[in-house]
Amino acid sequence: MAQAATEVSPPAPAENAERRRFERLKITLLGRYMIEGRHEFPCQTIDMSPADIHVVASDRGEIGEHAVLYLDHLGRVEGHIVRHSQQGFVLTITATPRKREKIAAQMTSLANREPLKAPEVRRHERVLPTITGIGLTLPDGSRHHVHIMDISHSGAALLASVAPEVGSPVIVGRTSAKVIRHFNGGFAVEFGEILGKQDFARIIGPGT
Q1: Cα atoms in the Cβ-side hemisphere of radius 13 Å centred on 27
Q2: Residue 3 covered by a domain
Q3: Which of 112, 104, 99 is closest to 53 using CA atoms?
Q4: Of 91, 113, 135, at which residue does a domain stop?
Q5: Are residues 105 and 176 in the same domain?
Q6: Structural domain containing residue 124
Q7: What rounded mean pLDDT belongs to the chain?
Q8: Domain co-membership, 65 together with 127
Q9: Residues facing residue 145 across a β-bridge
Q10: What CA–CA distance (Å, rounded) separates 90 from 179?
Q11: Number of structural domains the chain divides into
Q12: Which residues make Cβ contacts (< 8 Å) with residue 65, sequence separation at least 6?
């Protein structure tokens, strides 16, 4: 019996031209994604343009599948998987011309921003939350229960039985983060965005 072909058709010439029209920018953002209604996975962008985004992702999905990304500083982006890479996949962005212009402006702003300096990250006061238990999602999609040792608007120290690699994107509760170091019994993460007052209050609980 003949074996089904596994190769996919190349993008249409018009689609190729549209993607080439935009400059690709090396922007690293943390976030999370869902493919065709499956549960969330953490992700991290490699490079992007207003036409498509290349992300580090453990579940690469199938070519042509619909995916939704929620990226720090950029928000919700959706489209279809057009190519697999060694690190993850490339998503072609589905958007109206007006939305694409907005995305282009956001990406330009992100590409030109100055990197956050370490002293600025460390200046946020760390506190012990009222409720320490919280969910953790690893790059492979597995979920674990961990405890917050301390937390600030920019990061947290987590007590955990798992030790994801330094640099790994994770989801702490509903917040995108990146593992920055290990310590005895756990690890520290840096959030993709500085938490606002409401998000911070939601994590630490009342009366903290």
Answers
A1: 27
A2: no
A3: 104
A4: 113
A5: no
A6: 119-204
A7: 84
A8: no
A9: 135
A10: 23
A11: 2
A12: 35, 36, 80, 81
Among 178, 205, 208, CA closest to 193: 178
71 and 163 share one domain: no
Calculated CA dihedral for residues 136, 43, 103, 108, nearest 10 degrees: 110
pTM of the model: 0.74
152-203 pLDDT per residue, tens: 999 999 999 999 999 999 999 999 999 999 999 999 999 998 888 887 777 7
10, 17 contact by CB (below 8 A): no
**Cα-based angle 156, 159, 164 (whole degrees, multiple of 5):** 80
Residues 96, 137: one domain? Answer: no
Does residue 188 contact residue 179 with C-beta atoms inside 8 Å? Answer: yes
Are 56 and 48 in contact by the 8 Å Cβ rule? The answer is no
Contacts of 201 (CB under 8 A, 6+ apart): none
The CATH number that applies at residue 178 is: 2.40.10.220
Contact 68, 53 (CB under 8 A): no
Which amino acid is located at 132 in the chain? T
